[in-house]
Design goal:
Structural class: alpha/beta
Largest sheet: 9 strands, mixed
CATH superfamily of the largest domain: Glutaconate Coenzyme A-transferase
Number of domains: 2
CATH architecture of the largest domain: 3-Layer(aba) Sandwich
Shape: globular
Number of strands: 14
Radius of gyration: 20 Å
Strand content: 25-35%
Length: 269
């Protein structure tokens, strides 16, 4: 039952070239930085990633992208990653863009064993009708375009069929984790992490604070250990801010709120 491994490098050692990965995070919030860096050091390539976005230049999944280790990515948000833009328009990267809510549900469905579902999002657009560029030819033309999807009517409204997502591996970041793989995410860092954790056939979690089994309050656990195969302790993982803003001189400060976090135990709750 002890799922803890000694290092991030050991945790990702069996991820080979051509593997598919569901990667948690939103922007740079809640991304599994240590695992991504270990994967970069491992030298694997031709990866297929599923993530809300592909990091930024030289950070997060952007590190793998800059090293040209990603062949295809599925996401809902491109962001300000200039290398992403260059590779996509240059025909070096295949990209499947999907509505954000649909992406979340595709991951959730995959984790729940649901192969497909109908949603109204995208009906009447290229999402359903096909023709979205998946890969360019490097000269401005479209080399590969999306195929039309099935559309059906239920109770007078049209819905498009979307496939659930299952990946070979999932990489997630949690604030707390125990040796059985139970995870708790901090505030907005929860984002896509629970969905990705469920969608991976093998899920690897990096945790900032490792606690013993029984410490975490079961009612506070976001991802149950049954979904997690490996845990690695990363107490000093670096966190970056995607966009830093400052208040105008003289403007009142806004309290951060929340104060110091404590381990969500069952005691006193």
């Amino acid at each position: 039952m002890d799922k803890v491994v000694g290092s991030a490098a050991e945790a990702v050692a069996d991820i080979g070239s051509g593997s598919s990965l569901a990667v948690g995070g939103f922007g740079l919030c809640g991304i599994p930085t240590a695992l991504i860096e270990a994967l970069l050091d491992a030298g694997v390539s031709d990866l297929e990633t599923v993530s809300n976005n592909c990091g930024v230049d030289q950070w997060g999944l952007g590190m793998l992208l800059s090293a040209k280790r990603i062949r295809r990515t599925t996401g809902s948000y491109v962001g300000e990653n200039k290398e992403f833009e260059r590779q996509f328009l240059g025909g070096e990267l295949e990209v499947e863009l999907t509505p954000q809510g649909t992406l979340a549900e595709r991951l959730r469905a995959g984790g729940a064993g649901i192969p497909a579902f109908f949603t109204p999002a995208g009906v009447g657009t290229q999402v359903a009708e096909g023709g979205l560029p998946l890969r360019y030819d490097g000269s401005g033309g479209v080399a590969v375009a999306s195929e039309p999807k099935e559309v059906r009517e239920f109770d007078g409204q049209r819905y498009v069929l979307e496939r659930g997502i299952r990946t070979d591996f999932a990489l997630v970041h949690a604030r707390y984790g125990d040796r059985h793989g139970n995870l708790v995410y901090a505030r907005s860092a929860q984002n896509f992490n629970p969905l990705c954790a469920a969608a991976g056939r093998i899920t690897i979690a990096e945790v900032e604070e490792l606690v013993e089994p029984g410490v975490l309050d079961p009612g506070q656990v976001h991802t149950s250990g049954i979904f997690v195969q490996r845990v690695v302790h990363v107490p000093d993982v670096e966190k970056r801010v995607e966009k830093r803003t400052v208040r105008a001189p003289g403007a009142p400060a806004v309290p951060a709120g929340g104060g110091d976090e404590t381990v969500p135990t069952g005691r006193g709750l």
